Amino acid sequence: MTAKIIDGKEIAAEIRKEITAGVEALLADGGPHPGLATVLVGDNPASHTYVRAKRKACAEVGIESFGHELPADASQAEVEKLVSELNADSAVHGILVQLPLPAGLDEEAILKAISIEKDVDGFHPLNIGRLAQKGREPLFVPCTPAGCLVLLRKAGAKLEGANAVVVGRSNIVGMPAALLLVKENATVTICHSKTTDLPGVCRRADILIAAIGRARMIRGDWIKPGAYVIDVGTNRIDDPTTKSGYRQVGDVDFDEAMEVAGAITPSPGGVGPMTITLLLQNTLRSASRMRP
Ligand code: GUN
Question: What is the pTM of this model?
Answer without folding.
Answer: 0.96
